[in-house]
Predict the 3D structure of the following.
Amino acid sequence: MAHFAGWGISRRIQPRGDTRRDQPGDDSKEKDTNMNRIARLPVLAALSAALLVSLTGCSQLEARMELNKGVAAFKAGKPEQAITHFQNATKLDPNLRTAKQYLATALSQNVIAGLTTPDNIKTANEAISGFQEVLKERPDDLNSLKGVASLYYNINEFQKSKEWQKKVLAVDPKDPEAAYSVGVVDWRLAHDNIVKLLPPGTQDDGAGNAKVLVKGLCSEVQAKNGSLVEEGLKYLGQAIENRPSYDEAMAYMNLTYRRKADVDCGNEPARKEDVAKSAEWLDKAMGTRKANEAKKDKGPGGIVMDSNGNMK
């Protein structure tokens, strides 16, 4: 044993040729193994992350390729192939919003308006779900909002369609088509009501049905159609205000004033005024439609070039 003066510390002198600090039976090898294992963990984690990024990148690239194939198929008039490609794209990259929207759009093309068979409704609901997936990320996406509204209309869910058109107007208050659509739904609901309420064998005369809408029946018509007619005229007027040449909206103003004549049953002066306004809007619709057709026939103004780049 060697001693260091003044330190009060002694140490064992190892025999020459033996440089180990620990005696046989210590756990130094196990410690070294554990340390090596721990040192490898960050490396393995980094490699795993790099592999994940690589795989993700490949999936995203494949998703884009499927998306492009879907667009090409859709343009070629092959909606079923397009749907398959868009579905593949959403599976490969669930975050690819464009694929979800294109898939919903392609599915909506297969929905037959007015058909309420289970298959048609199923397809419509699949398309609606696709648009709603887009809206989770972008609640103000107008194309998706309009898509849902249109699909509900096509499967005769008129009230829901109207609600979604109002969501469109909440994003874009100046949208004439959304306002027009609300007015159309209101007219349709009011029309369906009057057809059901008229006595069997009675034809709608389009002028207030004054001969049959008396007493209790008149009150029932007012209760069911009063608010629909009022709202319909409001939104159709809004559509025309934002698009003065909107002949379709004018045509529905004509039809809605006919339904207002029903609501004004028992008030002969008001009924006659409704019928007169209905005729006025019919004239406006026809005149505006002719003007619109004339503009189409005339074509664009200014310099017009043919397909070869020569002035016509």
User: Anything to note?
Assistant: The longest strand covers residues 2-4. Residues 305 and 311 are 5 Å apart (CA to CA). Residues 173-295 form one domain. The chain has a mean pLDDT of 80.
